[in-house]
Amino acid sequence: MNIVETRNLAKYYTFDSGLRVEALRGINVNIEEGDFVSFMGPSGSGKSTLLNIVGCLDQPTSGNVFIEGREIDYRNSSNLVRLHRQTIGFIFQAFNLISTMNAMENVCYPLYFNRVPHSRQEKRATELLNLVGLGDRMHHLPSELSGGEQQRVAIARALANNPKLILADEPTGNLDSGTGKKVTDLMRKINREQGVSFLVTTHDHEMARTADRVIKLKDGKITD
């Protein structure tokens, strides 16, 4: 079964000057459950725009997106919130951890919005921080963690609500090559052992080599 499908997806930006920029043009993608897929392309190719539309952070100008076979209605805000809370997890290049919260509190944060009892929040956060190798760092603030450790906290946070799909936008972009490989290996391990689907935008050829499939974009279109 497809976890993600896009049909003739397009995204245009029109400016006051009359200039129209075509960020995506006729994108047709099928991602099966359990896949680890990398989107690759130069800056401005449309890969992050595509990821944001699949993740319901942005909406297309035209075309359709399906998650688990259901078409996304971008006008239905309550349904988008439900997808974010139950189905989709996010990992960002800049980590996006809350600076005043320690690692455990950052991982608990999405659970709070799903009204998970506090004791279960801490249990789940502890399990996930142990999974990503940070069981001894769970009470440290982001400023007390290395870049690689912060990204591992972000991965744990993305997993908090047991999502079926994780979208990662340049997850190794702010890391050195050695640390980036460790983060890539961790995401691949989670993908294989837990069956979580991953869609990743990257310039990192090491990450692309580990993917099940690489989809290349240029000028808003999929290339061979």
From TrEMBL:
The family database entries (SUPFAM superfamilies) matched by this protein are listed as: P-loop containing nucleoside triphosphate hydrolases (SSF52540)
Look up keyword Transport and say if it applies.
yes
The record's annotation in InterPro entries points to:
AAA+_ATPase, ABC_transporter-like_ATP-bd, ABC_transporter-like_CS, ABC_transpr_LolD-like, MacB-like_ATP-bd, P-loop_NTPase
Q: Provide this UniProt record's keywords sorted from A to Z.
A: ATP-binding, Nucleotide-binding, Transport
What CDD domains does UniProt report for this protein, alphabetically? ABC_MJ0796_LolCDE_FtsE (cd03255)
Q: Name one GO biological process term.
A: transmembrane transport
Start and end residues of each ABC transporter domain = 4-224
Asked if the record carries the keyword ATP-binding, the reply is yes
Which residues are in coiled coils? none
**Highest taxon, organism lineage:** Archaea
GO molecular-function annotation terms? ATP binding; ATP hydrolysis activity; transmembrane transporter activity
GO CC terms of this entry: membrane protein complex; plasma membrane
Task: Output this protein's name.
Answer: ABC transporter, ATP-binding protein
Q: Which organism is it from?
A: Methanosarcina acetivorans (strain ATCC 35395 / DSM 2834 / JCM 12185 / C2A)
